[in-house]
Amino acid sequence: MTKTIAALLVTSLFLSTAVLAADDVIEQRQDLMEHTGDAAKVVGDMLKEKEPFDAAAAMAALEVWKNTATEVGDLFPVGSETGHDTEAKSTIWSDREGFDQRIDDFSNAVDEAIAANPTSLAALGEAANPVFKTCKGCHENYRVEKDD
Which of 24, 31, 116, 138 has the most crowded CB, counting CB atoms within 10 A? Predict the structure, then answer.
């Protein structure tokens, strides 16, 4: 009986830790995506001429995107499919190869944008638009759209 209780306690602790870890990774990816969206707003506002072009701010936004490209793949482990009002579609895990390819596409587009080092609004548009297209492609296939 004592061994059974001990085994249940250990199992319960393990499951609690796994749930906390899944919650933690979901929170991490939500934070990462929030920062990514903030960077997209900076670039988008410049492209829509809501804000003046600022080369340093544009490059800082591109660097945020690079960080996202580097970190995002690790923030969708098996076991983190649900919780914390996640917007992740189950297709991330059922089509992991496709999801990973979208991340690679995003990363490559960001690398090209950074290499372009845009110094004008027109150059920023040319550099950032391919990045925005990769975002859209990933969101269409791997993100649940929530009503606000």
Answer: 138
